[in-house]
Amino acid sequence: MINALPPATLLLLGALPLIFLKGKAKGFWMLLLPVLSFANLLAIPIGSHWSFSFLGFEVILGKVDKLSLIFGYIFHIIAFISNLYALHVDDRVQNVAGTIYAGAALGVTFAGDMFSLFVFWEMLTISATFLVLARRSKAAIAAGARYFMIHVAGGLCLLAGIIIHVQTTGSAAFGFIGLESLASYLIFIGVGVNCAWPFLHSWLVDAYPEATITGTIYLSAFTTKTAIYFLARAFPGTEALIWIGVGMAGFPIFFAVIENDLRRVLAYSLINQVGFMVVGIGIGTHLAINGAVAHAFNDILFKGLLFMTMGAVMYRTGKINATDLGGLYKSMPWTCGFCIVGAASISAFPLFSGFVSKSMVMESAAHGDMRFVWFVLLFASAGVFHHAGIKIPFFAFYSHDSGLRCKEAPRHMLLAMGIAAALCIFIGCFPNALYTHLPYATDYAPYSAGHIIAQTQLLFFSALAFTLLLLAGIYPAEIRSVNLDADLIYRKGAPWLYRVCDKAFNGLNDFGDRVFVKKFPAALSRFFSDPARSVQRFGTQLLAEATGDERPLARRQSEIDHRTRNLAYPVGGGVLLAVVFLTLMSLFIFF
Amino acid sequence: MKQPVKMNEELGMFDKPKNVKRLLVLFFTLTGGVLAIDLFYHKHTIFPWEEYFGFYAVYGFVACVILVIVAKYILRPLVMREEDYYD
Hints:
The structure holds 2 protein chains of 2 kinds. Chain A has helices at 9-14, 23-42, 66-85, 92-110, 114-133, 138-169, 182-195, 202-207, 215-234, 239-250, 252-258, 262-283, 286-317, 333-346, 353-367, 371-397, 411-429, 432-435, 449-471, 488-491, 493-529, 531-547, 553-566, 570-590, and strands at residues 47-54, 57-64, 482-483. By secondary structure, chain A is mainly alpha-helical. Chain A has 2 domains: 1-235, no CATH class; 238-491, no CATH class. In chain A, strands 1-2 form a two-stranded antiparallel sheet. Chain A is elongated, with a radius of gyration of 35 Å. By secondary structure, chain B is mainly α. Chain B has one domain. Helices cover 56% and strands 2% of the residues of chain B. Chain B contains 2 helices and 1 strand. Chain B has helices spanning 17-40, 55-79, and one strand at 80-81.
């Protein structure tokens, strides 16, 4: 028996006191929690722990191996950095949601069975939704609602897959699944929603830029990376992932070039980077999986760093559109510097973290002789430098002087950015510190002369293209606008569907109400209130119409009405006589 | 928090056109230098075309030009709408 707690416990339970804590105590607790939780994780040995039986299946809360551990490490690091960055936030919703979100990501990472995994998976969705809603603007609330619905749909897909999988295999253990049965396809797609695959991705670029300044930092780290962890565990070497990843790496860069909201540019480049990881998992060799995991690790840091710098700009100026910003390098020199470190890292400059992980995926594609994949990834590498590496720092801190003069970011934000930036450079300079923790042993050496020269040439000439296009005035000027994306399908489609359903079903309802509730019973009750009169009136009406002689009609009808009122039917007399006759006959026979 | 720009405010490094020009010259020189390395160093590569002179330089440049042209002249007309499109 070990003396540690299940990895997610401390963050999940530790979030509860944040409801009551305020001021310094709250800040202290937020910084202490990830540290305690990390120390707890380090105390857990490799292996499966905390298993118990639930409904006849084995639930495992601590499946600890090299793959889950490295995700556990980076989730703690980014939880600490995000909490530090969010130290000024006195909003219970955000503080609690952010911490639970990090805890849920740990829960998914160390879950050894599909049931507990699913519970944590849904906790991710719920807590993330609150990070979007917490901005409390109209746009944020709408985006949060959309975010929630998409992820609930994805979660249900995953749940359906899990149930079928457990039924057919008889085991709830979470491990390699592979793409072969209906269950695996459902699980695959359910995870794909969280992984932001093409056409399933629009929640990401929709919600992340609408979330709170600090919320986006958490969001950028956990949802897509837990999905990457899931894929690396359950679907390594699945060929479909290569093509999905190629799509992810390719298409967002075009949107990023014309996007005005700089946090949305980063959201697009997030999909682009996750694309590299998905390709790596699809290739499935040891080098490729290592590359995917290492890139996830690095991406959490440099994407978080870039979101933090843009958040700091937004915090001080209240603006985030490229059209409103520019010239801030004088007001926010430190933030500007950290932004450039993040930009260099995501662009994979030598000595920065992206360089030592992205190349692993590229090289494994080359080893597999996947030429098309390799060319798209190289295109994406040049493209990401273009939109995330140059565009973000250039339009925020340089470009034209927007006239904005503000204070440098608060100290705790600078410290958080500084830690992330230092880690980016550290991993770039000493990649073995990261490589030793990768799932497979590796002797990969990123710093070969050929690789350094090739990457430097690629980046310098991408920058040259940017410079020349800008000088020539061809570079697309930023325009205030909305750019359509796959969310068009439900943002315009849903109201349309609503209207169609409204017309079809409410129309049917109306019709039913009119005919079966109002008219039909009324007619019936009129008829049966006096069936004899109604039949006779109808008969005389028909007769009059048939003969064309309508003169006696009114007289006859009043005659019928009169007879009905006085119950003076000849038929009544006949029936009376018959009854009397039958009675007499009965008496006669029986007595 | 837009504050009026003080006219006598010290000019930033990139407010002076001369500095921008210097930076550009430095950048172009470096770019040329990076390309020139290919003359002296033979890369050991996996694909044969990686060994061509200036392959990465040309690819990076062309990729970015295509990226911008496609984004500006094809994608933007297709997807750009007014800011209140969804309201």
